[in-house]
## 1
Amino acid sequence: MAPSFLFLPLFALLVISPAFGSDPSQLQDFCVADNSSQVFVNGFVCKNPNVVTVNDFFFSGLDKAGNTNNKLGSSVTAVAVNNLPGLNTLGISLARLDFAPGGLVPPHYHPRATEILVVLEGTLYVGFVASTNNQLFTKVLNKGDVFVFPQGLIHFQYNQGWTNAVALSGLSSQNPGVVFVANAVFGANPPISDDVLAKAFQLDKKTIDWLQAQFTAAN
């Protein structure tokens, strides 16, 4: 049997490694995403530094309000690696959130990012659900208030005021991803069996079929 001391470094690595959740330290100044590359990797291939330009690090337009003329009364303008390639490997992105009165960003989660939000105008009712006992944490935010949504937890933002609201969110990934709960469950492609959903939600299949029709059309 190998000496026990040989296992100590491995054990230490297994214990400590979860603490390092971000990308490893960069080995170069930047890795601008080459969105035209056909090479498939976990993330984006680096563009040749010799053809990188200042515009790879630039995005314009967050001063403009998003279109909230929709069923939800909200709009999200994301600035992530797909439209700001200089963000690649940097572990950060941004989004502008616009709300009409009564506007909602419905329950969703980001599989790869924590979100921190600051209200610029108006009032928002926000919250998230913890994985322990489904505990709900909510807060009414006013201009200048800040709230954080932990990574992977279902959360929402709702404008309960009588005027438009604007917020800015920072996310801890260049590609945070977003999963809207209702869309994912009732708008899956191909659809989740209505037998499964009827039992999971304790509803009759006619109601499930109606819900699936709403979200299939929305998608």
## 2
Amino acid sequence: MDTAGAYGGGKAGGAFDPQAFIQRPPVIVRAVCWLFSVIVMGCISAKGWYVSKADGYEYCVYNDDTNACNYGVGISVIAFVASIAFIAGEYLFEQMSSVKTRKHYVLADMGFSAFWAFLYFVGFCYLSNAWGKTETPPVGTANNMQGAIAFCFFSIFAWVACAFFAFQRFRMGADAAFAPAYEVEGAGSPGAFPAYPGAPDPQPAYSDPPFSQPHTGNVDYTAPTY
């Protein structure tokens, strides 16, 4: 099946161009999502926990709320893995020969990206609220905690951009699926419907009428009298 242009992708089996691949906007934005997830994980994992001198237990810097640290690290770990998976999917997307497979990939990309943008929005609100209630954070932890909040905020727009590019692909595929026959390349002249196999020629070659042959003899066309 010829899938050239299906859901914004090239023809299946085409040559792979590394330079063109890394310059694609979806690939660039996905790499940004990967980078932001690494930063959030690094900020919280490095300075997000401290050991209390009173009881020796480990607490989260965000108002001693363990769930806040776990939430920030959790969504970032999944975002880290998902970003790598979707970058690999961008490479495999060109190799997908089935239009239905491409459609499923685009829908999965759009749904996951939109959902993770929402989770990062929740994380931004959650961490900001917990940090605002923190009275005396340990020395040297403020920059990391504020950095994690900031990059949670940036991640919202990065994942929204991924969902937007996926939506554009889906719309391209839907428009191609419902395009009129006269807009399909190679369908013939505008307004013409494609003929089914074995159909007669819509413009047959006309022959002379059978009674138009010239007469060789003298014929009397006078009406008989009674």
## 3
Amino acid sequence: MSPPSRRLQTKPVITCLKTFLISYSLIFWFTGVILLAVGVWGKVSLEAYFQLASEKSTNAPYVLIGTGTIIVIFGLFGCFATCRGSPWMLKLYAMFLVLVFLAEFVAGISGFLFRHEIKAVLGDAYKDAVTNYHFPDPKSSAVDTIQTTLHCCGVDGYMDWNTTQYFKDNGIPASCCKENTVCPDEKLKDLDKAHDIVYDTGCFLLVTDLMESNLGIIAGISFGIAFFQLIGVFLSCCLSRYITNNQYEMV
């Protein structure tokens, strides 16, 4: 059994570590909420862009939502483990943080390294969707959403629609019409008359730049949260060790 003075010196350290780890766990819990929000935002705001590059709806937003939910749960578990002062719970919490760190680090690097490839794929997919536009095809609906949201028309401009079968049958899609502008069918079928009522900016650069910037943001968030896990791993391991040593000293 160790001297009482040594145990008294250990208790303030344990209390301090518990305070830091509880604060960390609450912040960790909040990062889970942020991932949840990013996942929901991605599902709502970027679904049209993901739809272009895939025949089916992408699972990426659901991955973020699922990861955020798990982090929220384990953030609460970290608070509980810290309050209980259970060494095995703290070690389990540290192992989970290591796994989250590795997963988010790999995801962040992948997003950063392949952002240009993703940009190119999305750009080609958008060109193909415009060429084969046929409402109400899912990819055609995505084109409509993009043109309406970004206030653009066609790949490089509204003139691109001139080479499509849809233009020959129906004219320029109504989603190219400027806000608060009436677009009669006869004007949409005439490129000269359509000039004043449709957006003249192409969507290609807007779409690819938007996706590249968003991928950069997501990669940055992943890197930031990943390295933040290392603090939790350090605190959990230190607290577990001090509690274990203190228990042995009391024997």
## 4
Amino acid sequence: MNGFSTEEDSRDGPMSQTCCLVDDGERCQRPAGNASFSKRIQKSISQKKLKLEIDRSVRHLYICDFHKNFIQSVRNKRKRKGSDDEGGDSPEHDAETPEVDLFQLQVNTLRRYKRHYKLQTRPGLNKAQLAETISRHFRTITVNEKDTLTYFIYMVKTNKSKLDQKTENASG
């Protein structure tokens, strides 16, 4: 589902509509962004006991950027498993971990990611389901920040890229 309940609603796009959420009993009047209210968001809201609910009288599922960021920040405050850093279990560390919105990527890009990492999924996933599956995988990838930053700075200073190294190795 693309956030709309009818084809007529989809012609105007999300920007001509207001957020579909009711915040502490009061309907949000901010303009809707392109983020859709999903079961995952609903689960986050109920787990964190937030006073947010969907206005059942609206004919779309788009939420404003304010509520999108608010829900993401609340979701990011949970403790992550398997962190290698000393501060990995502290709430301050988790709040600094950015949430990557893979839904903004094109479907072909998501499929390439899935193929590259050989992720097993059922056939026929829509964009939202594919982005959700890839997000779960993406969060499990561990990165050695010190090595990555060192390598990045080296590449910037030498004005090279990883692709340059592959072509040099192939020709040399």
